[in-house]
């Protein structure tokens, strides 16, 4: 039995060509889907996107979240970047035009996550102060940071640890709540408190204290505040962590520029 369709085409050829077309289409599809993250690219000089309507850029995809909200898969970041290029060509280094720790640039940059609280399956805030979690306590034999002084990289006391914020999904301390002493309930003014990421704090010394090497004691006053006393949103977490991270470069003038 012959496999020829005509005198010049047979089944094997059709199968081979079909496979080539399918494989080429698959590569095109996968490369197009790759561009859902970080595209369309934008000019560093003008800020305008490249090829926003190109065939290589996929169509927008809208996701419906558990909260009922919708989010765009290609939502652009429209924040004004307080940076300026040091040279007039694309790819040149940028330098801050204001306070980089507050403006969120360089190592102090943060992603514009949703300004909502991350919650567990039962609706509770995933990260909460230990005062609201009666089933959590500091293990016997471990030093309880509450009440200990917090010192900046200048060795000066910035405040006192007021509480621990627990990620009860991961079973770990995520933040220390630091009272900066800006008010007193007895005076009718709430205490001024900020969050300190546990990963950027070190419990050390005798007598014990909490040491922070990224920022000075006076710079704790600039830590981004949270809107509610017992919950922190995803966006607030980004800003708080970025502030301390940026201090590793921007907190002291001596940290900028070359070492030698």
Structural summary, described in words:
The chain is α+β, with helices and mostly antiparallel strands. It has three helices and eleven strands. The strands form three sheets. Strands 5, 6, 7, 8, 9, 10 and 11 form a seven-stranded mixed sheet that branches. Mean pLDDT is 85; it is low at 183-189.
Descriptive key words:
260 residues, alpha+beta, Photosynthetic Reaction Center, Chain H, domain 2, two-stranded antiparallel ribbon, 3 helices, elongated
Give a quick precis of the structure.
It is built from three helices and eleven strands.
SSE-based structural type: alpha+beta
* Major sheet: 7 strands, mixed
General shape: elongated
- Average predicted confidence as pLDDT: 85
What's the topology here?
Layout: H1 11-34, E1 62-64, E2 70-72, E3 83-85, E4 94-96, H2 100-103, E5 127-129, E6 149-151, E7 157-167, E8 172-179, E9 193-197, E10 202-204, E11 209-211, H3 234-250
Parallel strand pairs: 6-11
Antiparallel strand pairs: 1-2, 3-4, 5-7, 6-7, 7-8, 8-9, 10-11
